[in-house]
């Protein structure tokens, strides 16, 4: 009866461990809960990431990161937000080509 009990205990622990890892994987690290209604100036933005609604976050957004680390959320369907996203892509390329030494590369991080 002892080996049977040990097997049940092992399976119970395994089930709990798997359940916890699946649950933790679904927790978003950082979601926008509010969107900016005003355009964000190009000069302050150093990076961005895309937030997908329905994957733990309430809505789609483009999360811009300022040179100082502050995050600002923009509606993903706004033209100005896509223009700013393309600006950051261009900035990343410039910074990569200059080994992040260009004066405009402050706060821009390698991918």
From TrEMBL:
SUPFAM superfamilies: Interleukin 8-like chemokines
Gene Ontology terms: biological process: immune response
Ranges of residues in domain Chemokine interleukin-8-like: 28-88
InterPro entries, A to Z: Chemokine_b/g/d, Chemokine_CC_CS, Chemokine_IL8-like_dom, Interleukin_8-like_sf
Domain of life of the organism encoding this protein: Eukaryota
Signal peptide span: 1-25
Subcellular location: Secreted
A cellular-component GO term for this protein: extracellular space
A GO MF term: chemokine activity
Family: Belongs to the intercrine beta (chemokine CC) family.
PANTHER family xrefs: C-C MOTIF CHEMOKINE 20, SMALL INDUCIBLE CYTOKINE A
Protein name per the record: C-C motif chemokine
Organism per entry: Amphilophus citrinellus (Midas cichlid)
């Amino acid at each position: 009866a002892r080996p049977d009990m040990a097997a049940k205990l092992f399976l119970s622990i395994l089930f709990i461990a798997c359940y916890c890892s699946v649950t933790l994987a679904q927790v978003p690290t950082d979601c926008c809960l509010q969107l900016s209604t005003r355009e964000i100036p190009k000069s302050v933005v150093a990076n961005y990431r895309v937030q997908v609604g329905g994957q733990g976050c309430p809505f789609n957004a483009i999360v811009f990161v300022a040179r100082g680390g502050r995050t600002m959320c923009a509606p993903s369907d706004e033209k100005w937000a896509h223009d700013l996203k393309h600006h950051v892509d261009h900035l990343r390329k410039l910074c990569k080509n200059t080994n992040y030494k260009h004066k405009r590369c402050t706060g821009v991080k390698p991918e």
